[in-house]
Write a structure and sequence with these properties.
This protein is mostly helical. It has one domain. It is built from 20 helices and no strands.
Length: 462
Amino acid sequence: MKPPVPEMAERAKTSLETNRRPGNNSRASLFSKWLDKASTHPFLAFLPFLFFFVVLVVLKNNDAFESDEARYYMFSQNLLKGYYSDPPPNFNLWNGPGYPIFLMPFVALKLPMISIGLVNAVFQYLAIVFFFKTASRLGVAKLGLVFCIFLGLNYPSWVELPQIMTETMTTFLVSAIGLLIVKGYQEEKRWQFITAGLLLGYLVLVKIIFSNVLLAFLAGSFFLWLFNRKKPVFRQLLIIPVIAFLVNVPYLLYTWNLTGKKLYWGNSGGMSLYWMSTPYPGEYGEWHNSTISLYDRNETADSIIMFNEKKLQDNHRADYAEIYALPPQEQDDAFKKKAIENIKAHPVKFARNMIANAGRLIFDYPYSYTYQTETSLLRISVNGILLTLILLSALISALNWRRIPFSLRVIVLIMLLYLGGSLLVSVYQRMFYVILPWMLLWVSYVLTHSVRINLKLPVQNK
C-alpha cells in the first residue's frame, strides 16, 4: 500500500495555481504576493528573516559564556586533544558529541563567538525555508506561510541565536528531517530516506534525549516491517532508524568501553529524573544544579527571581551528600535509583510533577519557590492559542488517522515519542520550540483539510 502521492501532488499544484490565478483576486494582497514568491523561490522569499536574525545576533552578541556554553566549548577542546570525556577517575558524558564536533573548526581557528551566532542565524533561516517547502509539498502552503511568520517572530527562540547552544541547530535538523521524509515518500527515492537517517542519527548525538526516540522508532519500525514485508512504505521507513543507529555506533562503542554499559548515551538523565521525582510540596520538578542553588534565570526575555534556596537545600542535601560521595561513574545510576524510590513512594506527586513539566514545556510555568512576572501572560496567551490548535488537531487526527498522508503520520509519531519522553525528565520551554516545525506541519495539514473559517459575516436584513 502506497500513500496517495499523485492526489497529494495534484492538490498541492491546484492550490498554488489558485493563488497565482489573476482572476482570483485582481488586487492581490501582500500576503498573496508573498505566498506566490515563497512557492516559486522560497530561499529568496524568506531572506528578510535571515537579515533579521543576523541583526539580532550582532545586537545580542556577548563574548562571555552563559548557561551551557562553557561545557560545549570544553568538549570541543577535548575532541581537538583526541578524547571526549576526561579519563577515569574523572567522568563527564553530560551531553552527546554532536554539537562539540560542529564547534571544532570554530575552536581550532579561534574564531570569535559571533561567528557561531551567525551560523545559527543561517540554521534558523533554513529551518523556516525547509518547513515551508514541506508544507507546500503537502498542499498546505497558505497556512504554512502563516506558521513561517510565527517561527520567525517567536521571540523565546531568539535567545539562543547568538549563543553556543544546541537549540537552533536542533530546529534546523528537525525541519530538514521532516522535509526529507515527505519528499522520500512522494518521490520514492532511497537516498532521501538514507539522508533522513543520517540527520536523525546526528540529531541524537546533538540532543541525547532523542536516543530514546531512536530506540522506540527502531523497534516500532522493525515490527511494522516484519508483519508488512510486502509493503514498500514500511521497508522505506525502516531505513531511517537503522541508518540513524549506525551513525551512533562509534559513540556507543566509546561509552561502552568507558563505562561498561551498553546503549549508553550520557549521564545527565539520572539527575533530571531525580528532580522530576521530588515528593516535596511547592516543588514542581524542574532541574537544579549540583550545588542545589537557586538563581536568576534569563533564558527568555525576562528574568525570574528565585528564592527560598534554604528550603530546597534542606529537602535534598542528604541525597546529594550520599550520591556525590560515590565515584563519578556511579552517580547517574544512584540518581536514577533514588528517583525510582521517590516515584514508587509518591506516584501521585510524580504525576502532578509531569503535569507541571508539561506546563513548563509549553508555557514556561510553573517553577518551585519562584516569583513570577507579568511577561508570563504573553507566553500563556500566545501558546494558549497554539495549544488549542494542537488539541483540536489531535482530536481530528484520532478520528481520521488513516486519511493523513503516511509520511506525516511518521513525523507525528516521532514527535509524540519525543514529547512523551520529555515529560519524564525536567524540561524547559526551549525544548518545546525545537520540534515546532513538525508540530506546525501537522497542525497546518489537519486544519487546512478540516476547518473552514469565514471572516465575513452574512448580510442581515433589517
